[in-house]
Amino acid sequence: MYLVVIGWMYVVLMMSVAEATNTTGSVLGAIVTFFLYGLLPVALVVYLMLTPQRRKAAKAREAAEFQAQQQAAASADPDAGGHAPGAAQAPGVAPVRKEP
Fold first, then answer.
1. How far apart are CA 87 and CA 78, in angstroms?
2. What's the pLDDT band for 93 if we cut at 50, 70, 90?
3. Distances (CA, A) of 7 to 13, 28, 42, 54, 70
């Protein structure tokens, strides 16, 4: 595909040079020829031809993110509820009760 793009850009460049060097041509005409026959159509065609690759890369990226989320959820600690753990009582403190 890139060979066709390079070949077409070469043809358009030669058309622009011919437009600029012709006795009835102008540099402005050469610039317009280069953009309207070359850059704009080629950019559109390349964009449309690469759409499946962009879509495939986006799906692969989403699948990788989903898989990373699944692994993070599976490997999380069992006590990952977000609440503070209850503190254990110190062994030296006796509970309060009546004397027998």
1. 18
2. low
3. 10, 23, 11, 24, 48
